[in-house]
Amino acid sequence: MAPASAREVGFSVPKTKLIHWRTPLQREPPGSPAPPPICLDGQVFPPLPCVRWLGYWFAPNLASSAHFSKRLRLAQRAFATVKRLSPPGSGLSPHLAHRLAISLLLPNLLYIANLMVPSRGMLTKMDVYGRQVQRWVSNCFRSTPIPVLAAEAGIPPVLAIVPHKRRMAALSLICAAPTVNPAACRLCPTFPSLLKYRAPDSYRALCTRLPPNVIPLSWKTNCPHLNVKSHLPVDELPNLARPILGTRSFAPLARADLLLEAPSLPLHNTMTNV
Q1: pLDDT for the residue 158
Q2: Which pLDDT score, from 0 to 100, does residue 127 have?
Q3: Global pTM value
Q4: How far apart (Å, rounded) are the C-alpha atoms in residues 5 and 10?
Q5: Contact 203, 95 (CB under 8 A)
Q6: Which among 57, 68, 74, 71 has a CA at the least distance from the CA of 19?
Q7: Which terminus of the chain, N or C, has less C-beta within 10 A?
Q8: Where are the domains of the chain?
Q9: Please, what is the angle between helix 158-174 and helix 120-138, to 10°?
Q10: What's the chain's Rg over C-alpha atoms?
Q11: What residues contact 27, with CB distance under 8 A and at least 6 apart?
């Protein structure tokens, strides 16, 4: 807070939240008292089991279940409100119900699904919610087969949307310059990019002077599910780009004002392979 005070940047103390990040060796044994709170400007803040930051819900074990359970409850609450606009057999047309589902319900549910992977149990619950939305959009019976339900509603199942969002995030990452997307600095030096230096001086800290467990991994490492306690979630995305690149020499570099393309990697082929 001292550097912020020097720049006359203020913080709202009542909005402060506290969470303890500790390794398994640093945690207290079961049955021990809770970690002590901290005192800031005369106010006491006890540690919380889950903290929200920029719409992300983080837990001490860095698991994604806390975040997606929150997103599922928010999506269910929004769905309960939207359903009042179109009861069965009346109300909104299927076209407008489809637009509401695509623009409101699914984005509310799948927020940050391109970076954090839901657990198998949570993904099943999210898929059940997705089928409820499909049934509402298409006005189909409960006995309608699931594949037919997705086709009638024009909405893919959640089990297919989540991998697609991750592949699109991988494509956006490998085609971005570090000056546009600092996360591109996490690409290892052997990644086939048109840029010689992946990290400019202002972003060197993202790749150097880090513990060994958070050094960028090789993009050819076959690790479909990284341990979030050992590596950053963004390190999994370059691995998803392996089928997109195939045997091509370079990945295209898309920038805000310029699009560079290697002759051996047509951009339209890359888009269609996602």
Answers
A1: 92
A2: 93
A3: 0.71
A4: 7
A5: no
A6: 57
A7: N
A8: 10-48, 60-156, 189-198+205-272
A9: 110
A10: 23
A11: none
Q: Residue 153: its pLDDT value, please?
A: 87
Among the listed residues 42, 45, 35, 58, the one whose alpha carbon sits nearest the alpha carbon of residue 15: 45
Given its phi and psi angles, is residue 148 left (phi above 0), alpha (psi -120 to 50 degrees) or beta?
alpha
* Angstrom distances, CA of residue 77 to CA of 17, 64, 68, 83: 25, 20, 14, 10
Q: Walk along the chain (274 residues) in steps of 10 and give the mean pLDDT of each run.
A: 68 76 63 71 80 80 84 93 75 84 91 87 93 88 83 90 89 80 76 66 58 65 56 76 74 55 38 34
> What residues form DSSP beta bridges with 56?
53
d(CA 259, CA 267): 10
Residue length of the chain: 274
Could you tell me which residues are beta bridge partners of residue 251? 193
Asked if 57 and 67 touch (Cβ cutoff 8 Å), the reply is: yes
